[in-house]
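Fresh eyes needed here. Kindly weigh in on this sequence plus C-alpha cells:
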Amino acid sequence: MSIRPSIAALAVLLALTASFGAPVIAKSAKKSAEPTAEAALRAVPAWLVLGPVAEPLPAFHDAATGQVKVDDLLEAQRFATDRPMPREGQVEPWFAGAGAAWTRRETGGDGGVTLVPPDGAAAERPAGAWLAAYVDTATFRRARIEVVGSGPRAVWVDGRKVASGSGEKVEGTVDLEPGTHAVVLRSLTTSADGWRSGLRWGPAKDAAPFELSWSTAPAGRLGIERLLEFPGVDNLDIAADGTLAALTLERVRPGTDREESWVEVRSTADGRLVRTWRGSGSLTQVQWAPRGHVLTFVSSRDGKSGLWLVDLDAGTETALLEDVERFGSYRWSPKGDAVLYATAVEPPEDKSGVKRVESLLDRQAGFRTKSYLHLVTVPDGVRRRLTAGPESTSLLDVAPDGSRALFSRRVEDLSRPPYSVDELWEIDLATSKAMPLRTDAWMSDASYSPDGRKILVLGGPSMFGGAGNAAGEGVVPNDYDGQLYVWTPGTSDVVPLTRSFDPAVVSAVWSPADGKIYAVAVEADRQSLFRLDPEGGAPERIPVDGLEVIEEVEVARENGRAVVRGSGVWRPEAALALGPQVALYDASEGAFADVARGEVRPFAFEASTGVRVDGRVYLPVPFDASRKYPAIVYFYGGTAPVERDFGGRYPKEWWASLGYVVYVLQPSGATGYGQAFSARHVNAWGGDPIREIVEGTTKFLEAHPFVDPARVGAIGASYGGYTTMRLLAETDRFAAAVSHAGISTLSSYWGEGYWGYSYNGVAARDSFPWNRRDVYVDQSPLFLADRIKTPLLLTHGASDTNVPAGESAQLFVALRMLGAPVEYLSIEGQDHWILDHAKRVRWSKSIMAWFDRWLKAEPGWWDALYPPPGAGSEAKP
C-alpha cells in the first residue's frame, strides 16, 4: 500500500520521522556551556501547531507515589509511528471522534508561540501541544538549542530525543548532518493559563556562525534513511486470467533495524486493493496457480516452512506442505495438479576441524549442502522425491503438459573457462527417469516453448558453438552479454534470436497466450522490455511510461496481460500492469511525494580509444548555474553499465541532494551497447576504461563551467573499486576518491576470491599469473602504490567472499607506509554488499562525509563519525 501524505502523525514518538533526513546524533542536557558572542541564539520563525488538547492522566495513576507523572505524558505514544510528517491544515484523529488540525503560526523573538489550554484543564487534567518544523542544511552543522517555556517539554529531531526537562533551562546539542530534518517539540501544562512553547538555536560552543533554513512545509532534500526505508516490491506475479496481481512488499521500519514484509493483491483494472496479509510472520515466494484465483505462498517459522494455498473466490486457506525443513524454491506444474519444490540436505557433521578441499568449488561456504527436487500433488498433498546424487539440482521449468521438467547441475571443468559447466537435464515426472540434454559453460536459464517441443535458452554468445557471437572476426566475446536461443532438443537446430540485437538479455518468458517471447534486456544504461518472435526478426520494444530500468516482468497465462516493476532516475520504484497501464504500487506518490528532485542531463563523448562513451550528469538539488559545485565521478568499468535505477547501493540522487554534481560514465566493456563494445572488457584490466575515465572527466569539466575542477572526486565498487585504485596511479586529476571492495592485486583476487578465477575466465580470458605478468603485476594497484597521492577511502566487507578484504587491507598498509592520505573502513559481518541496515546507513554516510572533508573542506561530519585520536569522545552511531 502506498503511504498517503494526507494521513500523517507525530514525529515526537521516537521513530516517526527517521525517514525524513539523516538521523541526528545528539545528547540531552539540563545545562550547557555559555555560547560565545558569535553564537547568539536565534528564533525558529514559524511552527505547525497541533493542539492544545486535553491530556488526562490514567485512572489510579497514584500521583502521590509518582507511578505516572505529568512528565511521563511526554513519552506516551498517541499515534502510529510510520506515517509522514504533518503539513498545514492536516487533521489528526483524536478521542471521541474529534479531530485536531495542524495550523501554521508565526513566532515571537523567542521562537515560541502562546498556547491556551482547552476549557477545564487543571492539575488533574493536563493539556499538551505539539509543534513541528523542518530545518535544512547543505553541510554538517553542530547546533545548540534552547527550549522555550516552562514545565515538561522535550524536542525530537528525526525521531531522536535531543533535549528534555521541566526546569527553567532545557538545552541540548544537535549534530545536523546534510539534509532536511524534522523537528518536533512537545510541551505540557497543568495550569489553566496560557503557556509559551518554542525553540531557539545557534552554533554550538566554539563553532563558527552559520545559517539554517527553517520551514513548515515537509518538502526537502532526499535523505539516506528515507531512501533505504521506503517499501519496495520484492516479488510480483499475475493471475492466469490477468485480473489480479500479487505484490510482496518489504521495508525496514523507519527509525529501527527491524525488517517487515507483507502481501497485497490488487486489481489490474484500477489498482484497487483486494486483499492483504500483514503481521503474520514471514510470507515469501508468492505465486498464482495456473488456473483460477488460487494464490500460494511460503510461510516460515523456527527453521521450518509450509506452502499455503489461498482460494480467493472460495475464501479458503489450506496447507499443501507443512514443517518442511530447509525449504527452497518451488514452481507450479502448468496443469495445476502438482507443485515441484526444492529442499537442502546438509553434509554429515565433521568434528575433526580439518577439511580436505576436494575441488575449486568446494572452497565455497555451503558447497557441500546439496539441493534436491520433490513433487507434491494438488490438492491431496502426496509427496515424492525426484532427485538425489552428489550434485545439487536446480529446477528451471515444467513442461506445458506437466509430464516433464527441466533442471540443471553445475560441475567443475578446469579444461575451459569459466572452469565449471552447467548440465541441462530433463526428468520424466511419472518415472523419475532423467535424461541429459546438453552441457555448456555459459548457460544461465532454460524454459519450454508453449507446445513443449523446443527450449528457450539464455546464455552467453559462445553457446552452441558460438552461434550467438557477433563481436567480430577473431574477437573473443564477453560471455556476460546475455543472448537468447531457441533450440530443438536432440538436434543442432538452434535459432540465435538476439545475435544482431545490441541490448543484453537478462531474463525472458515465453508466453502461452500469444506464443511470443517477452524479454528484459540491458539497453545502454536502461533495462527495457521487448517482444520477440521465436521464429526470428527484429525485437519490438514495449513502452513502459516512467520506468527506465525494468527489474521484473510476469505475463498472464490466459490473455498475455503483463505486470512489471522497476524505477528510473529520480523515479522511485513502481509496479505497473500493462495494456492499459495501471499503477499497482508507486513510491513516488507516497514516501517520496515531498522530496525535492533534480535534473539529469545526458553527456557523451568520442574517446581517443575509438568508441563513443555514454554518460549522464545529475545536477545538485537545488541548482544554481552561477555557482561552483564539487563533483563526483562514478563508474563501474567492468562488464555492466551503471543503470538509471533509483537509489541503490550508490545513490546518485542522494549525492546530488547533498550539493554535488554527479557524472556517471560507461567505459568500454559494458553490456547493452552491442557485442563489439562489451568484448572490449576481455583482457582490459587497467586499459581503455582507465583512459576513457580520465578523458571523460576532462571533457565533462570543459562542458560544465559550474563544476569546480579543483574539487572533483571519484568512486567505484568491486571492479569499479579496482578501477578507482588503478585510476589514482594514473592521474592526479581527482581531489579525493573512494574504493569499495576494490581489487589491489589481481593475482591474489584470482586465487583467493571464491569466483576470481572464474570471473577472469571472461575478464582475462586465457591469461594467468604465470603467463601474463603484464596483467597480473603491471596492472595491479598494489605494485603502483607509490604513484597514489590522492586522499583515498577504502571500504570493505570484512567477510567478503567475492573480493577478499585483504585486497583493501594490503593497499592500506602500502599507502600508510608511503605516507599517503588514506583511511580504511572494515564493515564487520558483511560480504561483498553491505546489507545490514544500520551498517549500510553508517557506511553510506561515511562515504559522503569523506567527500565533504576533501571536496568541500568541511571535515565536521567525518570527525563526528570518526573523532580524531585524543578528541575525548566516542564515534557517534
The domain at 18-220 is CATH 2.60.120 (Jelly Rolls). The first strand starts at residue 25 and ends at 29. The CA atoms of residues 769 and 861 lie 42 Å apart.
